[in-house]
Amino acid sequence: MMEALHVKIERPKELRKNILQIAIDTIELMKKIDEYGEMREEKRRKISEFKHLMAEIKKLNMKLNVSQWPQVKIEELKIKKKPEKLIEKKKIEKKTKKALLDEELEMLKKRLERL
Q1: d(Cα 72, Cα 58) in Å, to the nearest integer?
Q2: Per-residue DSSP letters for 13-56?
Q3: Tens digits of per-residue pLDDT, 64-104?
Q4: What CA dihedral angle connects 84, 50, 36 and 99, to 10 degrees?
Q5: CA 74 centroid distance within chain
Q6: Which residues, other chains included, contact 17 with Cβ-Cβ below 8 Å and sequence gap of 6+?
Q7: Cα dihedral 43→85→52→72 (10° resolution)
Q8: Taking the C-alpha atoms of 37, 93, 106 and 39 in order, what is their torsion angle to the nearest 10 degrees?
Q9: With 0-12 CB in 10 A as exposed, 13-18 as middle and 19+ as buried, what is 30?
Q10: Which residues, at least 6 apart from 53, have a Cβ–Cβ distance to it below 8 Å?
């Protein structure tokens, strides 16, 4: 048979505030980790795009026979971007996760203020 065990906690209000503050800090860290992951993914995507463009430039440059062309200033080259539907889906999922974290953070902050 289980017996009820009661322990007196000194300064329970202060302890509760500390626990809520730790929960708030943890959620903020989770948000920062999530943002860091997004930045890493964006960096990887940009590097991949850059490598692809450099390979295309190198390929096109090899086709040119520069000695036969007149000297002309090249102002700007417009390149069409391919749609990235998969990336948009990932961003939507991340936003909902962030929204949930924000809601939980606000709830914890309100509870902390009430104490």
Answers
A1: 19
A2: HHHHHHHHHHHHHHHHHHHHHHHHHHHHHHHHHHHHHHHHHHHH
A3: 766 666 666 666 656 666 666 655 555 555 567 778 888 88
A4: -20
A5: 37
A6: 112, 115
A7: -110
A8: 20
A9: middle
A10: 79
State the residue for tokens 């999922």: 93
List Cα–Cα distances, 31 to 92, 101, 112, in angstroms.
15, 7, 20
Structure tokens at 74: 């090249």
Q: Which amino acid, one-letter code, is at 56?
A: E
* Most confident residue range from 17-31, 56-70, 95-109: 17-31
Write out the two tokens for 62.
């090899």
pLDDT exceeds 80 at position 17: yes
Dihedral sign, Cα of residue 70, residue 71, residue 73, residue 77: positive
